[in-house]
């Protein structure tokens, strides 16, 4: 059985019979983990091993593990600073900031890979306009070039650990105040304004070899009346056509309020897939997951299957013991610890 176009979550720290039944469904292709799925490094390793054992080929395993407010696994993992701290360093010492971004990417990815996680939904490529609370210090900087340089360095570090990268939230969530988890944000700017600022990090990261992109649940009515994640204009014409992106496209969580404009859960998934997504996410609503698996009819293309194959962790990951015996890795840990104050302890579950 190949993997399908749907990524789901699981209930807790161990797989339940209900989880396993869902994960065996042919439409499922991946699992996203949350803080509720984590207790300790050994427990996480056991959970990811049990997820892999459900299917052949194994399901993709992912997590939102960016640093700062959005770090799902904490106790036993290195505390990753919010990306804004690297942006502050860039203002005074660009070379040092790039080095520390690479070290951060390596540590973040190596620790996840050591516990059986294929990839994190990172880096955030949104421009910090100072208006979005949900983005805030998750963004590297207000300057697109700084974002592109720091994200590139983070990507180099992540690739060193054998991890793919996911740039989000295309074409940019930083300008609007509304939180797409709770509302339907609308960005009234002209395409030229978005292109001259927000698209710069995405364009450069595509050129650098970005593996995947996650679009925003934001409507840009001057470009298309549909949210970017449901828009062929944004995903096919602009992202794939103008930017030349050939990698994987993941929808943002279809359970979010910003996705409700597309209809029920099956209609949302169909809209995202028809617009150009390779895989859709449904999180924190098991009843919606069941409805989607019962109602969605979708035949994955060979191209989508190939793109998703590139999201698997590469190489044989070091164990946590091996990492802590590596002098270069220990040096990276010390350097990351000096990146400045860690702000915000919001734990999203």
Please give a structural write-up:
The chain has a single domain, classed as Glycoside hydrolase, family 3, N-terminal domain (TIM Barrel, Alpha-Beta Barrel). The strands form three sheets. The protein has an eight-stranded parallel beta sheet. A two-stranded antiparallel ribbon has the order 4-5. The protein is globular. The chain has helices at 17-23, 41-54, 83-92, 94-114, 144-160, 191-196, 199-208, 232-242, 265-275, 286-295, 302-309, 320-324, 327-337, and strands spanning 6-8, 28-33, 60-63, 65-67, 70-71, 119-120, 166-170, 212-215, 219-220, 224-227, 248-253, 279-282. The protein contains 13 helices and twelve strands. It is of the alpha/beta class and 349 residues long. Helix 4 crosses helix 13 (327-337) and helix 5 (144-160) packs parallel to helix 7 (199-208).
């Amino acid at each position: 059985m190949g993997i399908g176009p749907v990524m789901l979550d699981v209930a807790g720290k161990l797989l339940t019979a209900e989880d396993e039944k869902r994960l065996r469904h042919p439409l499922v292709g991946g699992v996203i983990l949350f803080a509720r799925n984590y207790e300790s490094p050994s427990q996480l390793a056991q959970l990811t091993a049990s997820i892999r054992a459900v299917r052949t080929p194994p399901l993709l395993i992912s997590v939102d593990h960016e640093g700062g407010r959005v770090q799902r696994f904490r106790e036993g993992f290195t505390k990753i600073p919010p990306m804004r701290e690297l942006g502050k360093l860039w203002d005074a010492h660009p070379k040092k900031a790039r080095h520390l971004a690479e070290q951060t990417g390596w540590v973040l990815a190596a620790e996840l890979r050591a516990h059986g996680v294929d990839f994190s939904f990172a880096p955030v490529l949104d421009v910090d306009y100072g208006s979005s609370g949900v983005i805030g210090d998750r963004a590297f900087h207000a300057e697109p070039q700084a974002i592109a340089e720091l994200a590139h360095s983070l990507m180099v570090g992540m690739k060193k650990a054998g991890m793919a990268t996911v740039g989000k939230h295309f074409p940019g969530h930083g300008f609007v105040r509304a939180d797409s988890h709770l509302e339907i944000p609308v960005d009234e700017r002209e395409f030229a304004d978005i292109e001259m600022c927000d698209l710069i990090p995405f364009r450069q990261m595509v050129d650098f070899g970005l593996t995947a992109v996650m679009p925003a649940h934001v409507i840009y009515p001057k470009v298309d009346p549909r949210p970017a994640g449901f828009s062929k204009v944004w995903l096919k014409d602009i992202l794939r056509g103008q930017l030349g992106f050939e990698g994987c496209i993941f929808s943002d969580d279809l359970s979010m309020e910003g996705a409700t404009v597309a209809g029920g859960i099956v209609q949302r998934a169909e809209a995202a897939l028809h617009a150009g997504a390779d895989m859709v996410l449904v999180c924190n609503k098991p009843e919606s997951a069941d409805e989607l698996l019962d109602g969605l009819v979708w035949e994955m293309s060979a191209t989508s299957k190939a793109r998703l194959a590139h999201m698997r962790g590469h190489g044989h990951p070091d164990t946590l013991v091996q990492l802590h015996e590596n002098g270069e890795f220990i040096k990276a840990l010390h350097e990351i610890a000096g990146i400045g104050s860690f702000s915000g302890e919001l734990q999203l579950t």
